């Protein structure tokens, strides 16, 4: 009996990618109840439950959501910093990443994906590029375009929509590694994205640049400066910043 399939079945985890829509369930909220099904009946708690249900339908036992699986309280600032540093690897090593497109109505149609607010988030770039398996869902948790294949990264139509939207070759999106794009190209892509907190412009790029910087909220625009300094020190030249 092969061990790898068993390990994947019992220990494989699924990541959640979505745009925050308000007061999402927090680490403290979930920690105070026995399960997500004991949370109050709100639309955002339902979103979390639907993610868990879809994870189970796909045959996996573990689900991870950024809103409630990271303790963001001041007393856990070290854990938050470590979590953000490792985020790229978490997505890259997941059994699958589920992308919930709250603004895409059902039934979805070609062209809806690039217009989703999810596409503009700073964190979206790594959540899109790092997973090996990804599935997109519309607002009713139906698979985007009705595509029930084994992996939406294997869908030429969906991947072409992404390629056209973010100006990255389709093949690069499907098989991305941090070495596939140059420094200037990565920075140019990141410059088109939005972040609620200024620091996230830099922190969302840590994995894509294989950076060693440690997140520290409160440094504001200095966060991007620290990332650029680290890139220059590693590359040994300043011309890479002419983007």
From TrEMBL:
Cross-referenced InterPro entries: HET
Domain Heterokaryon incompatibility stretches: 13-106
PANTHER family associated with the record: HET DOMAIN-CONTAINING PROTEIN
Identification of the protein by name: Heterokaryon incompatibility domain-containing protein
Species lineage: Eukaryota, Fungi, Dikarya, Basidiomycota, Agaricomycotina
